[in-house]
Amino acid sequence: MALTPVVLICGDAPLPLPLGSISASSAPTVPDKDEFDEVFSKLQVVADPRLIVVGSDAALAATLTRLMRTERLHIELAYVAEHRSEATEAYHLSAGARGARTALKGTARPVPLIRDDAGIALVGCAAVTGPDGGPLVGEAYVDDTRLFSGTTTNMNITPTPRMPGLRASVEPRRRWLPRRWVEGRAVQLGSPAAALTRDGVPNPRDVKRSTFYRHDQEWLLVR
Fold first, then answer.
1. What value does the mean pLDDT of the chain take?
2. For residue 58, which phi and psi values (nearest 5 degrees)?
3. What is the mean pLDDT of residues 179-204?
4. pLDDT for res 173
């Protein structure tokens, strides 16, 4: 069965040469749900669909979120970033022309899908601070392990390509100490007020509670 890739170019991201002859659709830098209508119509008429997202981590996260919400996680998903990013680091992906060649010739394998309680997928990094970038006050757990209690500078959450699915850390109290990452299935935060940024996109308002966890289905990442 022949592979039939479709390219989604988000914002002003440059199209690498290896993808120049592939059917492409354009979308804003961070696509909204309506921007996927055209690309989904192309994908639903092919036997072995693969969607290649060219853009930022936020574009990939928006695409994965839409696949999850519309029950299209059977579609293979490839990512081509112009430069290395949080998502390429998390999933060990190449960028630029090399990433484009992998997107065309790589193999799709299931990986854990990390989402939050707002139903938004995470592909690179969720960063949490106090309001206006100040200290973060509260308490956070990764599964049954306490990550911090009291005050810390910030908290980061990233997905992993293997089980249990995510890892989280806080800024060490002393700069020379290494950052300690804790892996798990879920991370829960409680705070009087916390500023949350997912894959470079700030949440419109501060949150008092936030949970990131492994979805009950995996997604098909091309690597």
1. 95
2. -65, -35
3. 97
4. 77
Give me the amino acid identity at 182. Answer: V
Query: Is residue 211 within 8 Å of residue 67, measured between CB atoms?
Result: no
pTM score above 0.85: yes
Check whether 165 has a pLDDT greater than 60.
yes
Structure-token pair, residue 172: 């060490």
- Residue identified by tokens 């009291």 is 150
Residue 2's pLDDT is what? 60
